[in-house]
Every structure is written in structure tokens, then in C-alpha cells.
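This part of the workshop introduces the protein records we will be handling. To make this concrete, we reproduce a full record directly below.
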Amino acid sequence: MQHKRPHSICILGFLTVVEHPEQGLFGGYLLLNHTGRPLEFHCTAPLRPNRAQEILYGPSLGPFLYGEQIGATLVRHAKATPCAVLTDSEPALAMGEHLDVPVALVLPPDPADTFTADPEDARAHLLRLDTAHNAGPTVQPHRTGDGKLVLFDLGRHRLAVPCSCEAHRNAITDRLANLPESFDLVEPFGRIHEAISEARKGVR
């Protein structure tokens, strides 16, 4: 039986993938405690798919590289186990299929940056959770690129999970319920990008 993690020991994982035109894909994984202090950081060597992989994997190449080869590998090799893993890269959501922790996509503040309403498509939908209202969640059809995601609010943040992993939404809202309102779920990705930039300088 699993017990809810106490607020004081909540650990969050942040994972992103940076694509460099010459060197390839760099994955970075940062583990923070509930105050935003770093506990671990891991970075991959550059990964570049060959032409055969590009042909054979087709549209599944991105989720394979970002989610399985980079994301799942980094999370598994870390010493600490997070209560959730957050990413700013949609293809990396595929790592949720290979991990025992919930995974979610952190979205930009402005919905117009990424999403456009599509009332004709009921397969993808927006699920808004707002504790300030008791009327329950409202559902509106939305589409995000070619993916089908469930979008939801967590405090002031906008997150998404694949429709196939909707249970992750409930797990994340439960485990992050006591996260301080001041905790910025976007800011850690900037740290990872800077750390990868430094690490990339050592790659010849």
C-alpha cells in the first residue's frame, strides 16, 4: 500500500531535452525538494538518430528518443524517486509509459501559444480544475498539435497528460496539493537549459 508523501519530503523531477543542430539531443534531469533546492542533476551525452532510425521509426521517433531513450533512462538512473516528473517537451511524455511515477507536461501561461480550439474534435479535451469553484471541472474540446492531451490547472500552472494516462492527472493533483503557491514549475527548466549549455561546451 502506498502512502502519500509528506509535504516536507516531496521531491519533484524536471526533465527537458535540448536539440543542437550539430551535436544532437541533450537530455537534462533536475531533482528539487519542495523549497526548490537541487538534490540531483543528470545530463546525457548527445544523442543523434541515424538515417535508418528516422526512416523506420517515422512519427514515433520523437517519443522513442525523448521519452524512452532519454527521459526514462535519466529518471531510472537517479538515486532519488520523485513524487512526479514534469517536462516542457511533449514527446518526452512518452516516458510515462516506462516509469512508475506520474508524468505531466508543463504548459506556457498563454493558451494561444500552443493550443487552438477545435469544437469538432471531442477526442481531445480540456479539463480545468479550480479549487475556487465548487461546480466541478468544465470540459471543452481542444487539440494540441497531433497529440491528444488532457489539460488541467494546478494552482496558477497549466499542465497536461496524455489521454491514455489520465490517471496521472489525479496522482499529480494529489501529490502536489501541498506544494507552495510560490513554487514556479516553469523556472527549473531554465536552470536545466543553462546547465546543458555548460555541459555542451565540453563536447567536441
Notes: Confidence is low (pLDDT under 50) at residues 1-8, 113-146. Helices lie at 51-57, 61-77, 167-175, 187-200. The first strand starts at residue 12 and ends at 20.
